[in-house]
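This is your field. Please look over both lines of this record.
***
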Amino acid sequence: MNSFTWIFIAALAAGLVVELWLIRRQRVHVMAHRTEVPPAFCAQIPLETHHKAADYTAAKLSLGQIELAAGALWLGLWTLGGGLNMLDQFWRSLAWGPLATGVAFILSTVAIMALLDLPFSLYRTFVIEQRFGFNRTTPRLFVADLFKQALLLLALGAPLSALVLWLMQTSGGLWWLYVWLAWSGFGLLMMWAYPAFIAPLFNKFSPLTDEALNQRIQSLLEKCGFTSNGVFVMDGSRRSGHGNAYFTGLGANKRIVFFDTLMSQLQPAEIEAVLAHELGHFKRRHVQKRLLQGLVFSLLGLALLGWLINQHWFYTGLGVQQPSLYTALMLFLLVAPVFSLFLQPVFAWLSRKDEFEADDFAAEQSDARALAEALVKLYKENANTLTPDPVYSAFHDSHPPASARVSHLLSKVAT
């Protein structure tokens, strides 16, 4: 153990304590307000539904506590416990060469991590979601999804890992710049390819058949100057009772996707308002900002790795005895979140700011009251808590609290 070991242990422990403290705050706050619907929602949200939202939130928080503790334990075992070192020695013993060994090491690490997370995923889907009436995933569908994800890991993860490691081996001191270019190019390619080639592996996407609604949507798109290759309805109800809508894709391959569950919950004016909100993200360039933000941080991260990769204390401080390019990459991917945890409130604040801006755009282009009513319906149907703890929300929530968001929209109606 060296000085970096103690720094890592301190950062890991501090992050775990803060996260558990935040979860406790959220649970206490939500349950303290369980017995009374906030005045702004009394007319739309029955007390029984409010109870369900509080209990659903508490159940997810309880599982989250266990996941956090388990995640910290697994990370400690992977690093200081020698897990990565043992896995590395196993693949080295096969004498496949640096590139093949590195790819096998990375893919097997990811696969083992997925297996360790599997019990939580099963409990979340078949216990919590089932208990509160949201789960529609069958065991057979769950297994089929896992199988498809494994195939995608091999089909996409293996070539990408091989390319990254090859660039690290052959590109000299500026390898991190070439890896960043390849990584970024792959990310952009996936954004373009996802709606047409990957998403259909898991869900069915059907063109919107309601002509009146489709005409309404096309009119809004033309008004906002947005072009896409279609408006689609996704069979989200095949897996869950939760409703949602999103944009996906890049360039001319953009798609607008509505969950079928959302379509069954909202009126046409409300669907139009939800779409206007999503268009607000496009028109206010939030997508581009997030993309640029990700590119900048990935460049800085790879530049930092470019320095760490030559520091022997980085390996030994995290339980790896024999330095290599691929162990450095995996160590960095595992450990970086520990040290970047306290940037999370900044990103959450920026995201909430974007949501308010998108709501403002929607209020200009459609009916602010319709969007407020749509949000209340979604809070109700998705069992979202209306009373989050302010500190927990500031740290974690990418969307403003329900009361603040609805109040903001209704102020647009008054003006």
User: Anything to note?
Assistant: The longest strand covers residues 255-259. Strands lie at 205-207, 231-234, 245-248, 255-259. The mean pLDDT is 93.
